[in-house]
Design brief:
CATH architecture: 2-Layer Sandwich
Structural class: alpha+beta
Strand content: 15-25%
Helix content: 40-55%
Shape: globular
Number of strands: 4
Strand order of the largest sheet: 2-1-4-3
InterPro entries: GlcG_carb_metab_protein (IPR052517), PduO/GlcC-like (IPR005624), PduO/GlcC-like_sf (IPR038084)
Radius of gyration: 14 Å
Keywords: Signal
Protein name: Heme-binding protein
Largest sheet: 4 strands, antiparallel
Number of domains: 1
Pfam families: HbpS-like
Number of helices: 5
CATH class: Alpha Beta
Amino acid sequence: MMRILLVAGAAAGLGIVPAAAAPAEPSDQAMLRLADAQSIATRALQAATEKQMNVAIVIVNREGRVILAQRMDDASFMNMALAEAKAATAAAAGVQTSLLEDAVNQGKPSLLSVPGSAMIGGGVPIVRADRIVGGIGVSGGSPKDDESIATESLGPQG
């Protein structure tokens, strides 16, 4: 929980505005369920396969807890750990992790002090009913490719 507060606070301090704030009591529409995570992961696997990439995909809830994790054949075990960190960071900050990476690269290294966060592209928040309900992290390609797969997996509702 402390990681979530630190990342969200750091993002806010940089003027990076999250997609939406999570409600105190989420409605059914504003929750990420296993079936939702499975659908998202299926689309991510399809996008990765089309790009001929072997990646790890992790989907977390708004607290950064893993709902679903998958690692394609030939994807490294390190990809799984990084995908989880990307997903949790995106859920906590409410922005794509590439924006945080850009902030670090533009002279905001203090973001790197947040324990367990990933300041590299490939993490995208998941938004439902105007609320952040989780995050997806993809790792195994370049940060740009990882983010592309994550974004494609969410489709227009993402």
